[in-house]
């Protein structure tokens, strides 16, 4: 068990990054600012007194205080979704050894969306606890399909082959989604709001459904982090260090799919958060996943929360869905990374 989940070989010398404490403090500060902004800003701006009343004075029944109370569940839900996507992106990049791997790029989001569409169109489901199991099944099957296609041929699952397999699979599944939705207006009405990606549906019920998946996914990620550090050196070296690479990839990929699938089921397919948060943390902290994974969770929570706030401010008096905002930010970044890295391995 120890050789699978961790490696203590002297050839791998990983230390706490020198700037870790400072970056952690900055992230905690940014997280606090994002939480306050999410509670205070939107189509209805609230005053400092209304914010205090909404948080600490349940007996106060003013309109502003009630607005703040309604935003609490949305804010917590956004933080959880961002954290899940951040960890999912870190795991996906490590498992595939691909610096631009992300659940959305590898088609996992689209697979989850297809199964949710089938549930809406054929099973007439409309509850979050039903969405989540369908989304997880779709995410697992799609991830397996992409890895299977990417592993074919000479050289196995190279970064470029996985990206191409993910793009092709995503395109094919997107076509199936359209084919199922178009003849069914009732399903289209329900699906079109979900598919954009939004944390507006973040109720306490959705949070309670989401928490077990979040805890399981992050625990698996942290337990496998030391062994994933060895995997960066290559399969042969990792095997020599006592890491069972195939089982490690399966477990880590499963954790990534659980986090991504649960988020997609409840918030819709939100792209690029995992890619952006993980790259920021790798740039600041280096490659050690013992630090990159938890800090990617914080970065993902910050990115998604501030994107939600920006969407509310830009679209006021309505709102611009957070999936649109993250795509607007993430798409240029993906192009830049692809140009700079030439889709090289980690």
UniProtKB/TrEMBL annotation:
Keyword annotations: Cell membrane, Membrane, Transmembrane, Transmembrane helix, Transport
Species the sequence originates in: Anoxybacteroides rupiense
Family: Belongs to the binding-protein-dependent transport system permease family. FecCD subfamily.
UniProt cross-references to SUPFAM superfamilies, sorted A to Z: ABC transporter involved in vitamin B12 uptake, BtuC
Lineage: Bacteria, Bacillati, Bacillota, Bacilli, Bacillales
Membrane protein topology class: Multi-pass membrane protein
Name of the molecule in the record: Iron ABC transporter permease
Residues spanning the membrane: 20-41, 76-93, 105-124, 131-150, 162-182, 203-227, 247-277, 289-314, 320-339
Localization in the cell: Cell membrane
């Amino acid at each position: 068990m120890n050789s699978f989940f961790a490696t203590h070989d002297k050839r791998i010398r990983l230390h706490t990054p020198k700037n870790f404490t400072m970056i952690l403090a900055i992230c905690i500060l940014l997280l606090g600012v994002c939480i306050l902004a999410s509670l205070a800003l939107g189509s209805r701006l609230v005053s400092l007194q209304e914010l205090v009343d909404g948080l600490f004075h349940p007996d106060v029944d003013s309109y502003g205080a009630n607005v703040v109370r309604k935003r609490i569940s949305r804010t917590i839900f956004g933080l959880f979704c961002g954290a899940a996507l951040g960890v999912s992106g870190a795991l996906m990049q490590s498992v595939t050894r691909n610096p631009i791997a992300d659940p959305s790029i590898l088609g996992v989001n689209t697979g989850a969306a297809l199964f949710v569409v089938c549930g809406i169109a054929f099973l007439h489901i409309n509850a979050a606890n039903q969405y989540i199991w369908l989304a997880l099944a779709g995410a697992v099957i799609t991830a397996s399909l992409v890895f299977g296609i990417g592993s074919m041929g000479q050289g196995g699952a190279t970064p470029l082959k996985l990206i191409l397999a993910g793009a092709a699979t995503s395109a094919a599944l997107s076509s199936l989604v359209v084919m199922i939705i178009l003849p069914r207006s009732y399903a289209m009405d329900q699906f079109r709001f979900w598919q954009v990606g939004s944390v507006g549906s973040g109720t306490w019920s959705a949070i309670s459904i989401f928490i077990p998946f979040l805890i399981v996914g992050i625990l698996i990620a942290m337990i496998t982090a030391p062994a994933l550090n060895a995997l960066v050196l290559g399969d042969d070296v990792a095997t020599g260090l006592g890491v069972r690479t195939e089982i490690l990839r399966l477990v880590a990929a499963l954790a990534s799919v659980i986090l991504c699938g649960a988020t997609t089921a409840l918030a819709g397919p939100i792209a690029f958060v995992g890619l952006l948060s993980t790259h920021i943390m790798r740039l600041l902290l280096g490659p050690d996943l013992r630090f990159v994974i938890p800090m990617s969770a914080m970065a993902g929570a910050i990115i998604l929360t501030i994107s939600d706030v920006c969407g509310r401010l830009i679209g006021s008096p309505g709102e611009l869905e957070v999936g649109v905002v993250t795509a607007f930010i993430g798409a240029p970044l993906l192009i830049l990374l692809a140009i700079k890295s030439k889709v090289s391995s980690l």
